[in-house]
Each structure stands twice: as C-alpha cells, then as structure tokens.
Amino acid sequence: MTSPLCRLASTNPPATQDQVSTPSSKVKGMKALVKPGRPRGKSATQAWPPHRSKAGPFHSGVGKPTVHSQVVELHRKIQLLEGDRKAFYERSQGTIKKNQETISQLRKETKALELQLSDLLKGEEKVVQAVIQEWKAEKPYLKTRTGQQALEHLDHRLSEKVKQLNALRHEVVLRQGRLDELRQQHSLRCLEMAEAQDSNTEVAKTMRNLENRLEKARMKAEEAEYITSVYLQLRAYLQEESLNLENRLDSMEAEVVRIKHELEELHVVNREALNARDIAKNQLQYLEETLVRERKKRERYISECKKRAEEKKLENERMDKQTQREHLMLQSDDSTQDGQHAKEEELRRRWSMYQMEVFFGKVKDATGAVESH
Fold this sequence. Notes:
By secondary structure, the protein is an all-alpha fold. Helices cover 81% and strands 0% of the residues. The longest helix has 128 residues, at 202-329. Mean pLDDT is 74; it is low at 1-63.
C-alpha cells in the first residue's frame, strides 16, 4: 500500500495484538521474536518481492506463484504452527500438573506444621521442650524463657524464615525463567545450525519462503486491521459532526446577523453622539460668548448705577445741608411753625429714603446681585 495513512499504520502497529493470551498467540509471538535473528540464504530474500505495484498488493505479476499455491503453503504453515501450539499446550499442562503436586505437598507440610503448633500451644513447658528439641541452636536462649516469650521468639524467627523462603522462591522463579530463555535460545541455535547445514535443500528453501510470506501476510493483516479501525473512528466522528453541523451553522449565521445589527445600531448611536457633541460644543461656545457680553454689559450698568447713586447721594447731602441752614434761619419763627417744619423734614427724609430703596431695588434686579449690608 502506498498511501500515507498506510505508512503511518505500519509505523504504529496496533496494541491489541500484544494482549492475546492463547497458546497459539504465544507461539506466534515466539516465532516473531526468533525470526529476526535467523540467518537466511540469498534465496530467502527474494521469497516475497519488496516491490509493490500501483494496482494493489493482491494482484500477482508475471512469474509469481498462484493464489491457490499460496493458500496451500499457508495451510501447511498453519498446520506446523498448530503442532507447535499443541506441544506448548502439553508442556504447559505438565508444568501445571507439577505445580499442583508441589501445592499439595506444601499443603501437607502446612497441615503437619499446624498440628505441631497446636501441640506446642498446650503448655509452656511442653512448648519450650518441643522447641528445644526442634530448634537445638536456640536451646541456650529458650531455657530461661517462658512459653509466651518462646512463641514470640519463634514467631519472629519463623517470619524471618518465611521471608527467606519467599526470596528463594522468587529467585527460583527468576532462574527458571532465565533457564527457559536459555533453552529457547539453545533450541533456536540448533535450528539455525540445522538450517545452515540444509540451506541448499529444497525443503529449507520452501520453509524460508513460507516463513517470509507468512510474516509479511501477518504484517499486512495487522496493518489492514489498524487502518480499518482508524477509518471506522473517522467515519463515526464525521457522522457525529454532520449531525450537529447544520444546527451550529444556523446558530452561527443568526449570531452573525445579530452582531451586524448591533454594529449598525452602534454606528447610528456613534453618529448621533458625534452630532450631539458638535451641537453641545457650538452651544457652549455661544453661551460663553453670550455670558461674556452679558457680564461686560452688567459691569457697565453697575458702574453707571454706582455713579448715579453717588451723584444722588451728594445731591441729598446738599439738600440736607440746605435744609439745615433753612432750619437754622427759621428757628427764630414762632413755635407754632416748628412742628410743621419738623413734619416736613421727616417727610422729605422718608421720601428720599424711599427713592433710594426703589433705585437700589432696580439696580439689584438688573444685576442679580444679593442685597448688600
């Protein structure tokens, strides 16, 4: 396959193949691990040509074996793998049987130890004596101890022994695994030596060709499965997106229309605000000029009123002085005329005060000033 997606799938093989736990899959995994280290002849490299035509991976070219022969060879290889699987299954059953026998033996030993422990718990003296007989190395320590102390000491020692036993069992498991690996490597070396000795025979060539073709077919099948899963995921995602696409498009169009309407309204409001600002500026300028003119006019009027008030005040003072002089001249008149002159003087004074109040009231109304003290 020549598409970029196929190349991506070949670089990222599916992870599901590593989770199969059947015996046949284990045998296939062992074969896959062994084959890269197996020497091949020159004819093995040409078993499956690396060239891939543009027409597809399943179209055969000139000089290649037919599909029927390939199927027959694959059936033969599958039979060989089935034999390996049966051998692995029998070996696994033997291991399981051996482990079951070991478990039964350990259960018997555990039961015997439980019986011994029940006997030891019957009395302190008996416990100590039995412990001394079983644990002769602990005799100096247990002679002066009670049964409870002896049991605690034995529990401590037993836990240590159990830990040692677990460590030894773990080491045995590791060594057993290493031994199995070495055995597999030895068997592979033997097979490689046998293949090297029989590399010129037709059977060896056929086996290598079958192995190469089977490996390539397995890799292509895994690649096809991975690509199929990717395509299925993409199709599901696109279907889900197509369901919500129309609703999202309608909502987005409605949002665009609403935003355009709001933008137009904002432009109108902006123009109105600019016009109102210009009008307010013009009105403010006109009011300032009018205020300056009115202020100057009021100042001139106030100065004129003050000047007229001063003149009126001087005239009143002159009239008062003249009235006083006339009063002095008329003091020699009869006493009957004194009261009349006094009334006339009072009337003139009140009249002058009334005129002054009226005048200052007009000035105050014209200027808008507050009443002065």
